[in-house]
Amino acid sequence: MSKMDGLRAMREARYAEAEARARKGTPAPKRPSSTVATATAVRSAPEPAAANATAAAAEELCGHRNMSGRTCTREQGHAAKSHRYS
Known about the structure:
Strand content: under 5%
Structural class: mainly alpha
Oligomer: single chain
Shape: flat
């Protein structure tokens, strides 16, 4: 088998896997039926003040992503030509 035949076989196998995954689909999430699950969900919810502070900080940053996934930490709409990633 040549190199190109091997590459073609690998590509077709990946395509078949992706097609099978798409046909299978994902089941709908189940709703909690008991009060214990509801109480746990309420307790684990973030505090509104912390959520607002995080949202405000996210709005103030540029948010541009580079190829490695890092985000720019400069302010939104900055005049600098370069981004500062962290």
